[in-house]
Amino acid sequence: MGHARTTVLAAALALLSGSALAAQSVDVFSTPGCGCCSGWIEHLRKAGFEVSNHDLGAADLEAKKEQAGLKPGQTSCHTGFVGGYVVEGHVPAAEVKRLLAERPDAIGLTVPDMPAGSPGMGASDDPYEVLLVARDGTSTVYARYPK
């Protein structure tokens, strides 16, 4: 009985570990050659995420954003998907990790437009907000930067 319980426990831990690793994989969709998108991807990689980038034409990228449930005024230049959430624009990796830890009932996070000082957009003390997008399309402030 002890061996069977250990085997079941080991299998459960392997399954949980696999789920945790899968949640750290981010699929990003952007237009080809976007330097700020590449900067954000590098920011995520440095924070420990495994990132795959997929180039799309502008119309296909806009369709991807709409399919994800994002509304006008909530979009930016690239769209990522991680752990069942959309991550739109230059969202700091710390907020992506927080989202995955807290698991709110939401579509995901967005940093609308391309604010200076956000990851991938260069150094600046300009303030910006990370928004949590609810399933009904409304949004609330999830974090403010600089902190």
TrEMBL record:
Lineage: superkingdom: Bacteria
Signal peptide: 1-22
Keywords from the named record: Signal
Coiled-coil ranges (or none): none
Gene3D superfamilies for the chain: Glutaredoxin (3.40.30.10)
InterPro entries: DUF411, Thioredoxin-like_sf
Identification of the protein by name: Metal-binding protein
